[in-house]
Specification:
By secondary structure, this protein is α+β, with helices and mostly antiparallel strands. The protein has one domain: Beta Barrel (Lipocalin). It has 1 helix and 8 strands. It has an 8-stranded antiparallel beta barrel with strand order 1-2-3-4-5-6-7-8. The protein is globular.
Protein backbone atom coordinates (compact mmCIF):
# COMPACT_ATOMS: atom_id res chain seq x y z
CA UNK A 1 0.00 0.00 0.00
CA UNK A 2 1.36 3.43 -1.02
CA UNK A 3 2.01 5.97 1.68
CA UNK A 4 -0.30 9.01 1.32
CA UNK A 5 2.46 11.30 2.61
CA UNK A 6 4.90 10.13 -0.10
CA UNK A 7 2.30 10.69 -2.82
CA UNK A 8 1.60 14.22 -1.53
CA UNK A 9 5.32 15.02 -1.48
CA UNK A 10 5.68 13.74 -5.04
CA UNK A 11 2.72 15.84 -6.23
CA UNK A 12 4.06 18.95 -4.42
CA UNK A 13 7.51 18.38 -5.87
CA UNK A 14 6.12 18.09 -9.40
CA UNK A 15 3.99 21.19 -8.85
CA UNK A 16 7.02 23.19 -7.66
CA UNK A 17 9.08 22.02 -10.64
CA UNK A 18 6.31 23.20 -12.98
CA UNK A 19 6.16 26.60 -11.25
CA UNK A 20 9.94 27.05 -11.42
CA UNK A 21 10.00 25.98 -15.07
CA UNK A 22 7.24 28.47 -15.93
CA UNK A 23 9.08 31.31 -14.17
CA UNK A 24 12.33 30.50 -15.96
CA UNK A 25 10.58 30.42 -19.33
CA UNK A 26 8.70 33.70 -18.80
CA UNK A 27 11.45 35.72 -17.05
CA UNK A 28 13.42 36.65 -20.21
CA UNK A 29 10.23 38.01 -21.79
CA UNK A 30 9.50 40.17 -18.73
CA UNK A 31 13.05 41.59 -18.71
CA UNK A 32 12.92 42.26 -22.46
CA UNK A 33 9.54 43.98 -22.08
CA UNK A 34 11.04 46.37 -19.51
CA UNK A 35 13.87 47.42 -21.82
CA UNK A 36 11.49 47.66 -24.78
CA UNK A 37 9.39 50.07 -22.67
CA UNK A 38 12.42 52.36 -22.28
CA UNK A 39 12.49 52.99 -26.03
CA UNK A 40 10.46 56.09 -26.95
CA UNK A 41 10.05 59.75 -26.07
CA UNK A 42 10.71 61.08 -22.57
CA UNK A 43 10.27 64.55 -21.10
CA UNK A 44 13.42 65.41 -19.21
CA UNK A 45 12.77 66.86 -15.78
CA UNK A 46 15.31 69.10 -14.09
CA UNK A 47 15.98 67.53 -10.69
CA UNK A 48 16.51 70.99 -9.16
CA UNK A 49 13.53 72.94 -10.57
CA UNK A 50 11.11 70.14 -11.53
CA UNK A 51 10.58 71.74 -14.97
CA UNK A 52 10.58 69.82 -18.24
CA UNK A 53 13.09 71.35 -20.61
CA UNK A 54 13.39 68.89 -23.51
CA UNK A 55 12.12 65.70 -25.09
CA UNK A 56 14.68 62.90 -25.49
CA UNK A 57 14.00 60.04 -27.91
CA UNK A 58 15.64 56.77 -26.84
CA UNK A 59 16.16 54.22 -29.60
CA UNK A 60 17.90 50.95 -30.36
CA UNK A 61 20.44 51.17 -33.17
CA UNK A 62 21.10 48.49 -35.76
CA UNK A 63 24.17 47.29 -33.80
CA UNK A 64 21.94 46.51 -30.80
CA UNK A 65 23.13 49.43 -28.65
CA UNK A 66 20.82 52.10 -27.25
CA UNK A 67 21.12 55.83 -27.82
CA UNK A 68 19.09 58.92 -27.01
CA UNK A 69 18.95 62.30 -28.67
CA UNK A 70 17.24 65.55 -27.83
CA UNK A 71 14.37 65.56 -30.32
CA UNK A 72 12.77 68.79 -29.10
CA UNK A 73 13.76 71.67 -26.85
CA UNK A 74 10.87 72.93 -24.70
CA UNK A 75 12.97 75.75 -23.21
CA UNK A 76 15.91 77.56 -24.77
CA UNK A 77 15.28 76.82 -28.43
CA UNK A 78 18.32 77.52 -30.58
CA UNK A 79 20.85 76.81 -27.81
CA UNK A 80 24.11 75.10 -28.73
CA UNK A 81 26.51 72.92 -26.77
CA UNK A 82 29.18 75.55 -26.17
CA UNK A 83 30.87 73.55 -23.39
CA UNK A 84 31.11 70.38 -25.49
CA UNK A 85 34.36 69.30 -27.08
CA UNK A 86 35.21 67.49 -30.30
CA UNK A 87 32.51 66.99 -32.90
CA UNK A 88 29.77 68.04 -30.44
CA UNK A 89 31.27 71.52 -29.94
CA UNK A 90 28.72 74.24 -30.79
CA UNK A 91 26.17 71.72 -32.12
CA UNK A 92 22.52 72.66 -31.58
CA UNK A 93 21.07 70.95 -28.51
CA UNK A 94 18.06 69.90 -30.56
CA UNK A 95 19.27 66.77 -32.37
CA UNK A 96 22.28 66.23 -30.09
CA UNK A 97 22.89 62.60 -29.06
CA UNK A 98 23.30 62.68 -25.27
CA UNK A 99 22.83 58.97 -24.45
CA UNK A 100 25.40 56.76 -26.14
CA UNK A 101 26.25 53.08 -26.41
CA UNK A 102 24.09 51.47 -23.72
CA UNK A 103 23.64 47.69 -23.56
CA UNK A 104 20.69 45.72 -22.26
CA UNK A 105 21.37 43.82 -19.03
CA UNK A 106 18.83 42.40 -16.56
CA UNK A 107 16.03 44.76 -17.61
CA UNK A 108 18.23 47.87 -17.48
CA UNK A 109 20.44 49.77 -19.89
CA UNK A 110 24.06 49.94 -18.72
CA UNK A 111 27.60 50.44 -19.90
CA UNK A 112 27.02 53.62 -21.86
CA UNK A 113 27.89 57.26 -21.45
CA UNK A 114 25.67 60.29 -20.85
CA UNK A 115 26.55 63.77 -22.09
CA UNK A 116 25.60 66.71 -19.88
CA UNK A 117 25.16 69.53 -22.42
CA UNK A 118 25.47 72.18 -19.68
CA UNK A 119 28.99 71.15 -18.71
CA UNK A 120 30.04 69.31 -21.89
CA UNK A 121 31.16 66.38 -19.73
CA UNK A 122 30.44 62.69 -20.18
CA UNK A 123 29.35 60.46 -17.30
CA UNK A 124 28.87 56.74 -16.84
CA UNK A 125 25.20 55.90 -17.01
CA UNK A 126 22.48 53.48 -16.08
CA UNK A 127 18.87 53.65 -17.24
CA UNK A 128 15.90 51.77 -15.81
CA UNK A 129 12.17 52.08 -15.23
CA UNK A 130 10.61 52.80 -11.87
CA UNK A 131 6.85 53.14 -11.46
CA UNK A 132 6.40 53.93 -15.16
CA UNK A 133 9.05 56.65 -15.16
CA UNK A 134 12.55 56.50 -16.59
CA UNK A 135 15.43 56.90 -14.16
CA UNK A 136 18.73 58.05 -15.62
CA UNK A 137 21.66 57.68 -13.24
CA UNK A 138 24.80 59.55 -14.22
CA UNK A 139 28.02 59.10 -12.26
CA UNK A 140 31.73 59.80 -12.39
CA UNK A 141 32.49 56.20 -11.36
CA UNK A 142 31.47 53.00 -13.16
CA UNK A 143 29.81 51.61 -10.04
CA UNK A 144 27.35 54.52 -9.98
CA UNK A 145 28.11 55.53 -6.40
CA UNK A 146 29.26 59.11 -7.05
CA UNK A 147 26.55 60.73 -9.12
CA UNK A 148 22.94 61.78 -9.31
CA UNK A 149 19.71 60.55 -10.81
CA UNK A 150 17.02 62.24 -12.85
CA UNK A 151 13.48 60.92 -13.29
CA UNK A 152 11.92 61.53 -16.70
CA UNK A 153 8.25 61.26 -17.65
CA UNK A 154 6.89 59.41 -20.69
CA UNK A 155 5.44 61.76 -23.31
CA UNK A 156 2.20 61.06 -25.14
Amino acid sequence: MENVSERSNFQLSTFMKNIIFTILVLLPFCVHAQVADIVGDWATVDDKTGESFSIVRIFKSTDGLYFGKISKMLVGKGLTCIECTGSDKDKPLEGLVIIRGFKEKNGELVGGRVLDPESGKFYYGKIYLKKGNLVLRGSIDKAGILGRSQTWKRTK
